[in-house]
Specification:
D-Maltodextrin-Binding Protein, domain 2, three-stranded parallel sheet, binds pentane-1,5-diamine, alpha/beta
Length: 348
């Protein structure tokens, strides 16, 4: 055999080995790239989706809306699915960053409670499908805090110095401070924002840490007395440590909605819609809600939850408590004011 022919044969063999190893050439599996909050799904449902539809899911996590938005805006990612909160969804709609979702491909959308449809951030339900919802509140350890907890002001009480955990999330931490002061958590007013900044600066020496998902281990382990948390995480922590209790303070708080969207970076819109429909399947929505602790907007999934969960006011609060809450709005150009405050508070 001539040398060159041998070389060609060897090369052909090498290419076919590589192709068979990567699964190319034959049945290539689609990869669906999902970008979601940390601790925000039951991984077993991902495995179930991959098996059922012969699709590989690449799953990444973020800690805040701002982190997720910056990554998508930078343009180097190719995610197919994101699960942001309402104010970030609004911003992404306005900036033409999202695909419209064809609800004809989401037959399980019928299980989503009407209460979670036609909300201000996506008034015609064109871009988002509800995933979870909840509130922001104070989680406290009843063995360390003996007085009644009903006001954000307790997070400024020197008695609890270095026993307070704040959220490392600018909208949430500035938002609850604005509520403590009696202002709207969507304010763009310079004086009100300055008052909030001063309050956060004053609070800083009392704060043990500004935390993300680590709040769960810390509060379950009794490392702090009080923490600002999301209701779903509160459900999870209360289950792990019965000394913990959750309250939405009397001054009011934030009610939020996290929904599934398809960014324009997606090359797999059909599979992304298949995934969204899968998430809306009652059994799947139930599994997720039961595992992560967050409230589900899926009417059938709620019915499957244990009675003590369905009746727990932390996850399913009474209407009068929600009436005290405000939903975050996209701040557009005024976001830089919040950004500056947060950088200053953290840097001090
Ligand atoms: C889960 C974060 C939930 C976000 N770790 C609440 N909007």
């Amino acid at each position: 055999m001539k040398k060159s022919l041998k070389a060609i044969l060897a090369l052909t063999l090498a290419i076919s080995v590589v192709l068979s190893m990567t699964g190319c050439g034959g049945e290539q599996r689609t990869q669906l790239k999902v970008y979601n909050w940390g601790d925000y799904i039951d991984q077993s449902v991902i495995t179930e989706f991959e098996k059922r539809y012969n699709i590989d899911v690449i799953y990444d996590e973020f800690a805040t809306n701002e982190e997720m938005y910056a990554k998508i805006k930078a343009g180097a990612s190719d995610y197919d699915i994101l699960i942001p909160s309402e104010y970030t969804i609004k911003r992404m709609i306005d900036e033409d960053m999202l695909h419209k979702i064809d609800l004809n491909n989401i037959p399980n959308y019928k299980y989503i409670d009407d209460k979670f449809k036609n909300l201000a951030f996506d008034p015609s339900n064109e871009y988002s499908v509800p995933y979870t919802w909840g509130t922001v509140g104070i989680l406290y350890n009843k063995t360390m805090v003996k007085e009644p907890v009903n006001s954000w002001k307790i997070l400024w009480d020197e008695k609890y110095s270095k026993q307070i955990l704040m959220m490392d999330s600018l909208r949430d931490s500035i938002g609850i401070t604005l509520k403590m002061l009696g202002y709207s958590l969507n304010t763009k007013d310079d004086k009100e924002l300055n008052d909030a900044k001063e309050a956060l600066m004053k609070q800083k020496p009392l704060v043990l840490a500004y935390v993300g998902d680590e709040v769960k281990d810390k509060m379950i382990g009794g490392e702090a007395a009080l923490a600002v948390v999301w209701s779903g995480d509160a459900m999870y922590m209360k289950r792990e440590n019965p000394d913990l209790e959750y309250v939405v303070p009397k001054e009011g708080s934030n009610m939020w909605f996290d929904s599934v969207v398809i960014p324009k970076t997606s090359q797999h819109k059909k599979e992304a819609e298949l995934f969204i429909n899968f998430l809306c399947e009652p059994e799947i929505a139930y599994k997720i809600a039961n595992y992560i602790g967050y409230s589900t907007p899926n009417t059938e999934a709620v019915k499957m939850l244990p009675e003590e969960v369905r009746n727990d006011k932390t996850a399913y609060p009474p209407d009068e408590e929600l009436a005290r809450c405000e939903v975050f709005e996209d701040l557009a150009d005024s976001l830089v004011k919040y950004d500056r405050i947060w950088t200053e508070v953290k840097a001090q």
